Fold this protein.
Amino acid sequence: MIVFRDVSSEALEAEVASRAKDDFLAMLGHELRNPLAPIVSALDLIRMHGAGKFERELAVVGRQLSRVTRLVDDLLDVGRMTGGRLLLRREPVDVSEAVLLASERVGPLVEDRGQQLVLETPGVLLVRGDVDRLSQAIGNLIVNAATYT
């Protein structure tokens, strides 16, 4: 079967612009990701050698570096989603497991802020989804709560 569509030049231009934006976001995410690994390694080395009187400053740098890393990861995810390359592993997931994974990831931020994260789960609550993406979403909620509390 052959189907003809009448596509306006504005629609084609919008599609081309959208594709260019998606390509730019993907490239930007990769370019930003590359320098983050050596920065994280350098920060770890400074901590290993003893930061002395700069512990507080290093904690700030570490927290901000974690935030930038998460933002870049989110940017890469957007590029993967729009390019159709983000694969979701849909399987039964216990929400408690996703909450625990999220709390482990953001725990240092909460502790650095002098806050306490208390987890209370009602038992097994199964959903069909991707445990990594679900824990990422829950982690983002915890970060926002810690930031604005």
